[in-house]
Specification:
The chain has five helices and nine strands, in the order βαβαβαβαβββββα. It is α/β, with parallel strands linked by helices. It has one domain: Rossmann fold (3-Layer(aba) Sandwich). Strands 2-1-3-4-9-8-7-5-6 form a nine-stranded mixed sheet, sandwiched between helices. The longest helix is centred in the C-terminal third of the chain and has 18 residues. The protein is globular. The two termini are 16 Å apart.
Length: 189
């Protein structure tokens, strides 16, 4: 099962619904869920969803620091991942609430089989402006240099865009690829 951490964003329920549609077992949990309750659920991975602000992100940074599961941060989750791991977030030079095209620089795990460009829905006013140490950039766009990133050694991924909405036509494939990462990680541990 994948746990979807609800950071009070408008799309968190859509993430959970998309996973269910893909027949990937998931559960939406509050961002105040204690670490031991997360571990008791024995997830194969965690998705840290979007929301209005880092200040309302509850225990999301603790999940990143203290739990050993594959993690996918989406929008605010991406920003929390970056900040927790030593990166920087700032107001975006160009706020975006539209479909944009990102350039995939490294197909890696979560973009496997998705091609050099991807149409996505961007909905943000903040973004990662400095990548954390030990992370690499997986995708960029004309309005955001760090649309996606990955830790070099751990299964930690962040994406600025929203794969759970229909404005990201290939979005479900991102979730399927992340689930594959989770299952492979489970086999190794």
């Amino acid at each position: 099962m994948i746990l979807v951490v609800n950071n009070h964003g408008q799309y968190n329920h859509r993430i959970n619904r998309t996973l269910n549609y893909l027949k990937i077992s998931s559960e939406l949990v509050p961002n105040t869920t204690p670490l031991n309750e997360i571990e008791d659920k024995e997830p194969v991975g965690i998705i840290i969803g979007g929301g209005p602000s880092v200040e309302r992100s509850g225990k999301s940074s603790q999940y990143i620091k203290k739990l050993d599961y594959p993690i996918l941060g989406i929008c605010l989750g991406h920003q929390i991942l970056a900040q927790t791991c030593g990166g920087q977030i700032d107001s975006a030079s160009s706020e975006s609430f539209a479909q944009i095209q990102i350039n995939i620089l490294d197909e890696n795990d979560i973009f496997k089989g998705m091609g050099p460009q991807l149409d996505v829905w961007a909905s943000h006013k903040d973004e990662v402006t400095k990548i954390p140490p030990k992370f690499t950039i997986l995708a960029s766009s004309s309005i955001c240099d760090i649309e996606a990133m990955k830790h070099k050694d751990k299964p930690l991924y962040g994406i600025q865009f929203h794969p759970e909405v229909h404005h990201t036509p290939k979005g479900p494939k991102v979730f399927e690829n992340f689930y594959t990462v989770c299952l492979e990680y489970l086999k190794r541990t």
